[in-house]
């Protein structure tokens, strides 16, 4: 006898799964575009061309909120609860300090709403990461090639970009770099530190995928290594070099191909550093920083000014909104910004809000990785997180927080589904 009820149930589930995958694919594609392609630099260029402010689109906000509530039963209620707590505390700040709605929306767009990505559950995560890396690897390789061409052409491309961004803060940074003897990679993807952050994501995600899935993506791992080394040198971030060294150290200490990886890395590093232009560029950057007396490029100096001045301590529950920390620093020094997101959050949003934000940004992902015994993911994510917190990108509205939470979403889902697949294999 044919079980019509059972057949109907299977057909309905298949249709639901198909619709879910289709919706998820649209969500991921749009999110990738807004997170990695539609950069702050591109938005500024287009805004200047058509004289319309394109910096803060409603679409990513509506997309993330809509998708989160569409899959409410699958997604983390803990992350939603913490995000709502942060939202209502900031709403009190807006009403109490009469913060401009535009400034509050910038905070919503660039910091608060992206936090929901950390609690978003995805299906078929291996395929999502594979497709993302297939695109992302090409994007980073092209960006690094652009940097090498710009370096060899003595900043010709940087000059063109500076002209396109003539009415923005980026123009001042580009002009300073052009006048100096140091090269750093400014591109349409962003500031040198943003480009460095993208490279750290690039090497970390490729290593994580290779380590856990034992598969290659669209490029061999040695191309990933070469791109990372050259990219790090053209971005010329001192702390970025430290983070990349720590990342490469993991390839030597973990896995079965330790000696092979060590030999490959030594050959690549010595070969690349044999090019005097790259080597001298990095050395000169370190020398300039040491001559200034502050290797952190003013970060420690800014922190000392705040500690030694009569600036009031951060409020416990509420703050005066995005940009408050920079205004406080400018009132007691000639420096423009603090460049340390954690300190900036304390003054901008209050102590309790900052703790809640960092629970989502770092403690929740780390808890998932440790629970699933994925200590390598824990290590790689910590390196990504530490670099993201080494400059002010996360505290201003240029999309760094969304990049971090997007990667958190991928790695958390990877950890959870990978753990379940191992469990099913053991049962079978």
Oligomeric state of shown chains: single chain
Mean pLDDT: 86
Low-confidence runs of at least 5 consecutive residues: 423-428
Q: Could you describe the largest sheet, including whether it forms a barrel?
A: none
Number of strands: 0
Number of helices: 19
Q: What fraction, in percent, of the residue positions are helical?
A: over 70%
Q: How does the overall form come out from the CA principal axes?
A: globular
H/E topology pattern: HHHHHHHHHHHHHHHHHHH
C-alpha Rg (nearest Å)? 23 Å
Report how far apart the termini are: 30 Å
Our estimate of the beta-strand percent is under 5%
Give the helix/strand class: mainly alpha
Structure in words:
- It contains 19 helices and no strands.
- Helix 6 (125-152) crosses helix 9 (192-213).
- The protein is mainly α.
- 74% of the residues lie in helices and 0% in strands.
- Mean pLDDT is 86; it is low at 423-428.
- The protein has helices at 4-37, 40-50, 59-70, 77-97, 101-112, 125-152, 156-164, 169-179, 192-213, 221-235, 238-253, 258-273, 276-292, 299-308, 324-332, 341-349, 351-371, 375-388, 400-427.
């Amino acid at each position: 006898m044919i079980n019509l009820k059972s057949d109907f149930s299977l057909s309905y589930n298949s249709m639901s799964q198909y619709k879910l995958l289709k919706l998820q694919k649209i969500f991921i594609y749009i999110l990738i575009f807004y997170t990695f392609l539609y950069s702050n630099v591109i938005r500024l260029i287009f805004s200047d061309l058509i004289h319309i402010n394109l910096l803060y689109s409603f679409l990513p906000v509506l997309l993330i909120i809509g998708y989160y509530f569409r899959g409410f039963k699958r997604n983390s209620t803990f992350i939603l609860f913490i995000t709502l707590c942060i939202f209502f505390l900031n709403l009190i700040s807006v009403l109490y300090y009469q913060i401009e709605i535009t400034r509050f929306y910038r905070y919503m767009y660039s910091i608060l709403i992206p936090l929901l990505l950390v609690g978003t559950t995805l299906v078929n995560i291996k395929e999502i990461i594979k497709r993302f890396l297939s695109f992302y690897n090409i994007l980073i390789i092209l960006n690094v090639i652009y940097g090498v061409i710009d370096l060899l052409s003595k900043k010709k491309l940087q000059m063109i970009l500076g002209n396109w961004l003539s009415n923005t803060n980026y123009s001042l940074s580009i002009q300073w770099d052009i006048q100096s003897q140091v090269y750093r990679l400014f591109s349409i993807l962003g500031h040198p530190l943003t480009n460095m952050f993208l490279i750290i994501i690039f090497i970390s995600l490729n290593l994580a995928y290779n380590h856990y899935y034992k598969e290659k993506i669209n490029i061999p791992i040695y191309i990933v290594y070469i791109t990372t080394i050259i990219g790090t040198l053209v971005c010329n971030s001192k702390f970025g070099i430290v983070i990349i060294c720590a990342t490469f150290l993991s390839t030597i200490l973990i896995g079965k191909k330790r000696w092979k990886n060590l030999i490959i890395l030594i050959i690549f590093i010595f070969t690349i550093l044999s090019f005097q232009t790259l080597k001298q560029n990095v050395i000169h950057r370190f020398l300039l920083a040491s001559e200034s007396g502050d290797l952190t490029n003013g970060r420690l100096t800014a922190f000392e000014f705040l500690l030694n001045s009569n600036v009031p301590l951060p409020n416990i529950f509420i703050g005066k909104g995005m940009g408050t920390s920079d205004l406080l620093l400018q009132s007691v020094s000639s420096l423009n910004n603090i460049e340390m997101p954690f300190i900036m959050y304390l003054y901008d949003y209050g102590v309790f809000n900052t703790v809640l934000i960092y629970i989502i940004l770092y403690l929740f992902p780390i808890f998932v990785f440790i629970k699933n015994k994925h200590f390598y993911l824990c290590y790689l994510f910590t390196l990504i997180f530490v670099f993201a917190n080494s400059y002010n990108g996360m505290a201003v509205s240029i999309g760094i927080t969304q990049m971090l939470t997007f990667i958190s979403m991928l790695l958390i889902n990877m950890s959870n589904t990978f753990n379940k697949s191992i469990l099913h294999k053991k049962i079978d």
